[in-house]
From TrEMBL:
GO biological process, one term: 'de novo' IMP biosynthetic process
Active site: C2
Cofactors that this protein relies on: Mg(2+)
Taxonomic classification: Eukaryota, Fungi, Dikarya, Basidiomycota, Agaricomycotina
Organism of derivation: Tremella mesenterica
Gene Ontology molecular-function annotations: amidophosphoribosyltransferase activity; metal ion binding
Amino-acid positions noted as binding Mg(2+) in the UniProt annotation, renumbered to this chain: T313, D375, D376
Entries under Pfam families matching the protein: GATase_6 (PF13522), Pribosyltran (PF00156)
Pathway info: Purine metabolism; IMP biosynthesis via de novo pathway; N(1)-(5-phospho-D-ribosyl)glycinamide from 5-phospho-alpha-D-ribose 1-diphosphate: step 1/2
Record keywords, A-Z: Coiled coil, Glutamine amidotransferase, Glycosyltransferase, Magnesium, Metal-binding, Purine biosynthesis, Transferase
Protein's UniProt name: Amidophosphoribosyltransferase
HAMAP family: PurF
EC number: 2.4.2.14
Ranges in coiled-coil conformation: 480-507
Catalytic activity: 5-phospho-beta-D-ribosylamine + L-glutamate + diphosphate = 5-phospho-alpha-D-ribose 1-diphosphate + L-glutamine + H2O
């Protein structure tokens, strides 16, 4: 799950400053929970020049004052990455850039299903060189090729809508995207099923006119002083210039199915996505889980003494659940605020190590008690297994583990990196077997019906959600046994580890050859600019500029 962001400032003086860049950086820090592997910003200044800073690492690692000062321009695009295709290589950090046609910068949240077909098409028919394994680079090149087909020196909004509409018939999967055309403006679009979220907002410009924001989540809006958040609709494309905004449905309507896992885990509670407050939906999840828990505890003959959340995401639901059951709610685990999200870390050993680093149990809340631990979800079981053990180590008499989501048994192919069902703890296991596996005395899962209702009650116009990780039903089509097997082989934890190790070897060779210092295996940060590969971009290092375009947009 990545975070995308686009900003366009109306103020003509913004062209000479780094204002857009630093606001985008601020916005990206609010989307950090969506991707911790890499971050990047490209801005556009006078003469359509692009300026970029991107690298592996968190927002705070990638952008320093000097880097930000170089991000000149009145508009820009930002990205935080959690890879779901390709690797964690620096070359795949976004935004991506192609110089032809017109100079396009592009950022993507989601995942494509028909990668081999697109690759083949781009090679054999479009004659476009693809330099990385990133699906986002393919998406950008499909867009570029569609624009190129007009053969025009100047294009208009019709041409852009047609190009994006064609892209939507060519690309299968999930994609929420924001792009920038040199010297001209922003574009944004969302796949025909609306699986990944993206919206836009406006504010009054510093010297008149209107500023525009595009972002994965509404949380950015208030922080940057924007208002009037509107979701971009499934299959819709938006074109934003300083003078005008065009919005159009460019793909025939399909079933609208936003990903329910955004509400369970990914999004920040202070965001509202597709008219549903994430916070309210999590409260409802806690309430509904409370009902189920009451029944299950009775069946098991267990009396719980205290409800304890697994920080961070489950807090909202756990409090509501405790209130529903009339039980005390205690913060038994203290979270180290300097450790990020563990689920979106790239390897299992890193995830496991970091659960221990991140959470510390306070014995006084556990000793001699029957505790109910509440988490938003149990995916690989990494957190639950460690946490149950920690609770027992500090004297819990019995541990009940309650999950706000139903059992996760199937791969995610739409932008959450869960490619291998065999890595999922509930895959081919009953609830009792899961309990045994994670060492809990009882596991209680939310029902899918309750989960859907927890979200849907706040926007009944959404009739369906993407629930594929619970049901194995994939709304886009194109996902069959063969595809799933291929995905698993390509992206299971072992395969990713192998890739990372070979990447690190490559970097060691490079560092040796330039006598540079090397960091340890855990830290690719800071080394990222040594990567020999480039990703759809000819921009060799931070603060460089590219592009020769003046205003090329015409009618
Ligand atoms: O079963 P698992 O594979 O461990 O995955 C599920 C856990 O991972 C997530 O936490 P994470 O630490 O990523 O983020 P959080 O701090 O927002 O809860 C999620 O909230 C669960 O706690
Ligand atoms: N999580 C995402 O949205 C990832 C975007 C894209 N598939 C990548 O791997 O970079
Ligand atoms: Mg968690």
């Amino acid at each position: 799950m990545c975070g995308i962001l686009g900003l366009l400032l109306h103020d003509p003086l913004a062209t000479q400053t780094a204002l857009a860049g630093s606001e985008i950086c601020e916005g990206l820090s609010l989307l950090q929970h969506r991707g911790q592997d890499a971050a990047g910003i490209v801005t556009c200044g006078s003469h359509g020049r692009f300026y970029q800073v991107k690298a592996n690492g968190m927002v705070r690692d990638v952008f320093d004052a000097q880097g930000l000062a170089g991000l000149k321009g009145w508009m820009g695009v930002g990205h935080v990455r959690y890879p779901t295709a390709g690797s964690s290589a620096h070359a795949e950090a976004q935004p991506f850039y192609v110089n032809s046609p017109y100079g396009i910068v592009f950022a993507h949240n989601g995942n494509l299903i028909n990668i081999p077909n697109l690759r083949q098409f781009l090679d054999a028919d479009a004659h476009r060189h693809i330099n990385t394994d990133s699906d986002s680079e393919l998406l950008l090149n499909i867009l570029a090729n569609n624009l190129q087909k007009t053969g025009k020196i100047r294009i208009n909004e019709e041409d852009i809508f047609t190009a994006i509409g064609d892209l939507m018939s060519q690309c299968v999967g999930a994609y929420a995207c924001v792009g920038m055309l040199a010297g001209f403006g922003l574009i944004a679009f969302r796949d025909p099923n609306g699986i990944r979220p993206v919206g836009m907002a406006t504010r009054a410009g510093a010297r008149g006119g209107t500023d525009y924001l595009v972002a994965s989540e509404s949380v950015v809006v208030g922080a940057l002083g924007f208002k009037h958040w509107e979701d971009i609709q499934a299959g819709e494309a938006v074109i934003i210039t300083r003078q005008k905004v065009w919005r159009r449905q460019v793909a025939p309507p399909r079933m609208f199915t936003p990903d329910i896992f955004e509400y369970v885990y990914f999004a920040r509670p202070d965001s509202t996505l597709d008219g549903i407050s994430v916070y309210r939906s999590r409260m409802a999840m806690g309430e509904a889980l409370g009902e189920t828990a009451q029944r299950e505890l009775k069946k098991a003959g267990l009396e719980v003494d205290v409800v304890i959340p697994v920080p961070d995401t489950s807090r909202v639901a756990a409090l509501q659940l405790a209130q529903h059951l009339g039980l005390p709610y205690r913060e038994g685990f203290v979270k180290n605020r300097y450790v990020g999200r563990t689920f979106i870390m790239p390897g299992q050993s890193q995830r496991r190590k970091n659960v221990r680093r991140k959470l510390n149990a306070m014995p006084m809340e556990f000793a001699g008690k029957v505790v109910m631990l509440v988490d938003d979800s149990i995916v690989r079981g990494t957190t639950s297994e460690e946490i149950v053990q920690m609770a027992k180590d500090v004297g819990a008499k019995k541990v009940v583990f309650a999950s706000c989501a139903p059992p996760i048994r199937y791969s995610n192919v739409y932008g959450i990196d869960m490619p291998s069902p065999h890595e999922l703890v509930a895959h081919n296991r009953t609830t009792e077997e899961v309990a045994q596996h994670i060492g809990a005395d009882l596991v209680i899962y939310q029902t899918l019906e309750d989960l859907v209702w927890s979200c849907r009650q706040f926007n009944p116009r959404i009739e369906h959600f993407d629930c594929s990780v619970f049901t194995g039903e994939y709304v886009t089509g194109g996902v069959d046994e063969r595809y799933l097997e291929h995905l698993e082989k390509l992206r299971n934890d072992k395969a990713k580890l192998k890739k990372r190790l070979s990447m690190m070897e490559e970097m060691e060779v490079l560092a040796d050859s330039c006598n540079g210092p090397m960091n340890g295996a855990d830290s690719l940060i800071g080394l990222s600019n040594h990567s020999p590969q480039i990703g759809a971009t000819a921009m060799p290092s931070p603060n460089d500029t590219v592009g020769l375009h003046n205003s090329w947009f015409g009618s």
